């Protein structure tokens, strides 16, 4: 189970403000809580899972590199409900993964 999110550039491109640091910390905590929920749900079903989160500049390329390095056979990608702007970006990420990942990719939709 992997959660990826973009590392936003700092408000003042050369350094992070206190607000930037607080927002990043909140986002990290949200992701850790989400992954913890998945770990607990898997443990209840006696399913062994690994969790990881990534802070990256390119989600698609990070996922492709991860799939290659870890010899993944099947990648399952969740497609959440998004705004139109987010949906366009997400479509680009999914298409890049579908075309460049050297494994089977299953995309789920809500």
UniProtKB/TrEMBL annotation:
A Pfam family recorded for this sequence: Usp
Which superkingdom?
Archaea
Q: Does the keyword Transcription regulation apply?
A: no
Name the keywords, alphabetized: Coiled coil
Q: Which organism is this protein's natural source?
A: Nitrosopumilus maritimus (strain SCM1)
Where's the UspA domain? 24-108
Give the source lineage, highest ranks first.
Archaea, Nitrososphaerota, Nitrososphaeria, Nitrosopumilales, Nitrosopumilaceae
> Coiled-coil regions in this chain?
21-48
Designated name of the protein: UspA domain-containing protein
């Amino acid at each position: 189970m992997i959660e990826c999110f973009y590392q936003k550039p700092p408000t003042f491109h050369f350094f992070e403000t206190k607000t930037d640091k607080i927002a990043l910390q909140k986002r990290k905590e949200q992701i850790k809580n989400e992954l913890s929920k998945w770990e607990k749900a898997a443990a209840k079903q006696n399913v062994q899972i690994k969790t990881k989160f990534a802070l990256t500049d390119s989600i698609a390329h990070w996922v492709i590199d991860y799939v290659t390095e870890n010899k993944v056979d099947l990648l399952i990608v969740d497609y959440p409900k998004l705004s139109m702007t987010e949906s366009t970006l997400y479509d680009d990420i999914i298409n890049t993964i579908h075309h460049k990942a050297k494994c089977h990719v299953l995309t789920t939709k809500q």
